[in-house]
Amino acid sequence: MRVSVILIALLSCLLSSVYAESKSRYGKQNVPADLQQSTLVCSVDQCVYLMTEDAKLKEKLEAMDSRLNQVTYRLKTAETQLGVLKQENKGRTNVVFSASLRSFGNVGPFKTETTLKYSNVFTNVGKGYDSNTGTFTVPVSGVYLFMFYNHALGAKATYLTLTRNGQRVVTTGHHRNTFESSHNGANAITLQLRKGDKMCIRLWAENWVFDDDKNYTTFTGILLFTV
Ligand SMILES: *[C@@H]1O[C@H](CO)[C@@H](O)[C@H](O)[C@H]1NC(C)=O
């Protein structure tokens, strides 16, 4: 509103100055008819005031323009970052498995080290775990968390080892102990693995481990993040 009033006033001021100039140039008779009919006039004071106002407005407009440019730039940057995040999330792979031995009694002792087949699968997101072989094949390179818990009767030793491609990584163990009817063991580790790595829990030779429908003895793996 205020701007339009100022614009009208400015216009009238301009017209009156053109009128004055043309009067002196042409003499009153030669002033073009449309200008002669113009009745909008303003004083010099008003003119100066309006011109000052106009300059201020221009300044403000320029400042706003530059701020708008800044905001636009920041918005564009934020949009780009959002796009990157979306892309990362889209490509995000979830890998999780958890299974219990569900053996309904002792497993072992065996003459040689044996891979445990955790047959009762709770979760297998990413399909990395194979309950027929007890092997988790890493479906995507990354950092993984593994946990394995076990229960066993005391009359024999119970040593379980997490292996990577057949190599021992971490072990949980309990000696034969005739004073204890049973015992529990566990271990956990984070590992940076490559796609295709094979992870198993191996029961040492002449050892045993126990499970039934209570799911004491479990093997869990979680992809924390891809690398
Ligand atoms: C063991 O797992 C089975 C199958 O997932 C479930 O039905 C059962 O309730 C679990 N037992 C215990 C004691 O947690």
Automatic annotation (TrEMBL):
Subcellular location field: Secreted
Keyword Acetylation annotated: no
Lineage, broadest ranks: Eukaryota, Metazoa, Chordata, Craniata, Vertebrata
C1q domain ranges (all copies): 90-227
Chief subcellular location: secreted
Annotated protein name in UniProt: Complement C1q-like protein 2
PANTHER family assigned: CEREBELLIN 13-RELATED (PTHR22923:SF102), CEREBELLIN-RELATED (PTHR22923)
Signal peptide: 1-20
Keywords for this protein: Secreted, Signal
Gene3D superfamilies xref list: 2.60.120.40
One annotated Gene Ontology cellular component of this protein: extracellular region
Organism of origin: Astyanax mexicanus (Blind cave fish)
